[in-house]
Amino acid sequence: MLIVPSGEEFAAEQNLRAALGDLHIQIVNVSGGQQILELSGPNVRDVLMKSTSYDVHPDNFPVGKAVGTVFAKSQLVIRHTAEDTWELLIRRSFSDYWWLWLQDASAEFGLNVVA
């Protein structure tokens, strides 16, 4: 999976095709069906522990790691991008469900939305 800034998808796809030449590969732009939700703060790991059975302890899930897992009874990809920052790569059709879930899971820690 390759994540690029919005608006750079087509160029990245073309560059990959050129670089990989005649290899038997498949490159698919799925950005229309996905979105990224970034979570940050000192209690994010606690919220994740309430939401997934995957072990998010720093010894098992260091910065730079990404996994596909079950989260709030659905599938997503979790990326640990910085010490207290995580990204959730979610299917757009589940956005409302995950948002409601995260509001509930983070209620005891406070929730601050930054656009």
Strand content: 25-35%
Through-space gap between termini: 25 Å
Compute the number of helices: 3
Q: Based on CA inertia axes, which overall geometry fits?
A: elongated
Structural class of the secondary elements? Answer: alpha+beta
User: Mind summarizing the main beta sheet?
Assistant: 4 strands, antiparallel
So, the CATH homologous superfamily of the domain at 33-109? Probable tRNA modification gtpase trme, domain 1
In the predicted model, the low-confidence regions spanning at least 5 consecutive residues are: none
Total beta strands: 4
Which second-level CATH architecture of the domain at 33-109 applies?
Answer: 2-Layer Sandwich
Under CATH, the topology of the domain at 33-109 can be stated as Gyrase A, domain 2
The CATH class of the domain at 33-109? Alpha Beta
Q: Spell the H/E element sequence.
A: HEHEEEH
Computed CA radius of gyration, to the nearest angstrom: 16 Å
Mean of pLDDT: 91
Major beta sheet, strand line-up = 1-4-3-2
Q: State the helicity in percent bands.
A: 25-40%
